[in-house]
Amino acid sequence: MTISNDLFERAQRLIPGGVNSPVRAFRSVGGAPFFVKSARGATLTTADDQELIDFVCTWGPAIHGHNHPVIKAAIAAALENGTSFGTPNPYEVEMAELIVQFFPSIQKVRMCNSGTEATMSAIRLARGFTRRDKIIKFAGCYHGHSDSLLIKAGSGALTHGSPDSAGVPASFAQETVVLPYNDRAALVEAFATYPEQISCVIIEPYCGNVGFIMPDAGYLSYLREITARHGTLLIFDEVMTGFRLARGGVQELESIVPDLTTLGKIIGGGLPVGAFGGRADIMDYLAPLGPVYQAGTLSGNPLAMAAGIAALKLLTELNPYAKLDALGRQMQDAVMEAAQAKGLPVQMPQRGAMFSIFFNASPVRDYTTALQSDAKLFARFFHACLDRGVYLAPSAYEAGFLSTAHAGAAIDRACEIFDQVIREL
Ligand SMILES: *Cc1c(COP(=O)(O)O)cnc(C)c1O
User: Fold this and answer.
1) pLDDT per residue over 155-167, tens digit each?
2) Which domain holds residue 257?
3) Which of 117, 119, 301 for a ligand 1 pocket mutation test, highest count of atoms within 8 Å of Cβ?
């Protein structure tokens, strides 16, 4: 009996499924999850002292690697002064200044405690501002677990969506239209079907939650154009991509100006955080200035702000994006070379510090094509990598993440392991 297995047994008695977030339970790859007792750089150390090269990076935040000394010192310094005040604190102002500096589309920003809160609040704000109820989201894009957003496509492409979770009222689902990603015609049809009813379109501009998927050339600028034409707000959910692919997120890479942006993950430096911001005239609809209510006991928490500020300043200091992209390409080369040698159909989209390995003969461009990947083969690949000390996200439909700490030994070792594992699949 390993320590992890023992912990998992105890956890399952008291915590539903033994986990506090479902994908951690390994349901889609089989087997039992391992418990981690510490993490440093690119390495996780399990409760049983196995060392793993980590390509999950706490699902995105750890762009500087785990337990970075500068972030740790910033948290320790903030801790000296107290953990929460329930009043405004100086860190919040500095954080807002940093976010606004790197995201020119954001004129004002509100901090919250998770990406889920950020997207939920941004949607309420968009509805309040436009006085419209419907929203458009895209199949395969994940925006946290609030009711309006846990919706899947309905039976007809343009009917309203259906709840994607028990407990979400069908009447809520009626207000969410779910469209295929990368499909311009579907957008045109939706705006024609619901004229002047759509408050906002929310999108992961590069998808990271059904594996990593890039938009077709021109798709995002088309989305910007059609939303503007219909008085619909465009929300870029950059909880995952913000500060990860560029300091200014996908909107910087693609030169798009959304109306609202949601952030999280990296801006908390590993502590719980979220933020949403955008045009000042929209943001001023929030309480206490405006009629849209949104609040949080721990919002702008000094420890989370200190950690996030340190993480963002490190990004400015190091400007690691070219280096991260080179690491990503090194992995892509290793995986694709092994796959070709083996005659195995693999797609490996990669950009900067994000990638996916799909066992799929065709390019993955939306939810439907992602689901055509061979999930059973992925599960074998996942466990073979894990046995050799490489931890990938435990699902065929998740993105992988790199950190600056992967440079050098970790990436070289991981590439060797990918090569071996693929040839033996
Ligand atoms: C992770 C994620 C969220 C949800 O953030 P939580 O902090 O887990 O609530 C929302 N949107 C995107 C794009 C994400 O990747």
Assistant:
1) 665 667 899 999 9
2) 69-317
3) 119
